[in-house]
Write a structure and sequence with these properties.
alpha/beta, 5-stranded parallel β-sheet, two-stranded antiparallel sheet, 13 helices
Length: 333
């Protein structure tokens, strides 16, 4: 399998050789012969400085050990990647090379991986296919069919070649599929590209987190359903000044962290920013319809508990005061 493939590649790189002797129905033996020293290498074949620091690897950990301490204070700093791999050395190697650029979680089987994914809502998952408790195909299917994680890209790693296995992975929702042994540079490029793609997909929300923007063209069915639920919750509660992110997440049946990461991944904005924007949109409507131009009344009716804060947010968003906006609307009418 993959072990023999790696041995063959290492023999070739080391100017050695590998031979096989086989007797039908009895014994098969492989012999690898490697020259000692380094006189047989060309100068450009010698790595004078190691590209990867083994000392940077993490110690062996339990499956649910978090490599980075995740809380709401550092969620904005780096993307979160979940590595699910039952082979200890490979798992630690992947964590080692990714942890310099990302917050990394790890699990040693698919079942634990799914539990961590539901708890922390990562930005991307890298999973082996053949694992105990739950394989990579079932992990991918579970992740993609759950509202909490349906948006999360999944890269499957496997020693199984062939279009049939790749097709199974893609049918279960995998976003990418790499055959072991794989290039580290290629894996890092795939990870970066998938995370960047998510950022491009939320570009239409950009500076104005308007829930009525065109989302259907890039959201999958489950995420469209999620956003419709979010819009309905906002419609019912937007005028309530006591409506907070905590209440928002409770109505969505998610923890505050799960809700924050899900909404941020889809819209590119925090739940707080979305609530504020929807209130300001309502305020614009009320100001356009208002006859007496009472700014305080409009602020309270659109869900703001403080008229001064309302005026500040309004000017930051629309580059004019609520009174100026109301006057311009009256003139245009």
């Amino acid at each position: 399998g993959i072990g023999l493939s790696l041995v063959k590649e290492l023999c070739n790189l080391s100017h050695g050789e590998i031979v096989v002797k086989s007797t039908p129905n009895e014994l098969t033996s492989f012999k690898a012969i490697l020259p000692v020293g380094k006189h047989h290498f060309k100068n450009n074949e010698l790595d004078k400085e190691s590209k990867y620091e083994i000392s940077g690897f993490i110690p062996k950990t339990n499956a649910d050990r978090l490599i980075s301490s995740l809380n709401e204070n550092n969620l904005e700093e780096l993307p979160v990647i979940l590595v699910v791999e039952d082979h200890v050395e490979i798992r630690e190697f992947l964590v080692g090379i990714l942890s310099k650029e990302y917050n990394v979680l790890n699990a040693d089987n698919g079942k634990t991986g799914v539990e961590l994914a539901f708890e922390h809502i990562p930005d991307l998952i890298i999973s082996d296919v053949i694992m105990p408790a739950m394989d990579g195909f079932d992990l991918c299917k579970t992740i993609k069919s759950d509202e909490r994680t349906s948006h999360v890209p999944v890269i499957l790693l496997t020693a199984r070649e062939g279009d049939e296995n790749k097709l199974i992975g893609l049918e279960n929702g995998a976003d990418d599929y790499l055959i072991k042994p794989f290039s580290i540079a290629l894996l890092k490029a795939r990870v970066k590209n998938l995370i960047e793609l998510r950022k491009k997909l939320i570009f239409s929300f950009n500076k104005n987190p308007d829930l009525n923007g065109k989302k259907e063209e890039y959201l999958n069915t489950m995420d469209q359903t999620f956003m419709k639920k979010i819009e309905e919750i906002l419609r019912r509660n937007i005028k309530n000044p006591d409506f907070t992110v905590e209440l928002f997440s409770n109505e969505a049946n998610l923890s505050r962290m799960q809700f924050h990461r899900k909404v941020k991944a889809i819209t590119g904005h925090s739940a707080n920013a979305i609530i504020r924007t929807e209130r300001l949109k309502l305020a614009c409507k009320l100001l356009s319809e208002s006859k007496d131009g009472n700014i305080a009344d409009v602020a309270y009716e659109s869900g703001f508990s403080d008229a001064s804060y309302f005026a500040k947010c309004f000017k930051e968003t629309y580059n004019c005061t609520p009174k100026e906006y109301a006057k311009s609307q009256a003139n245009s009418n």
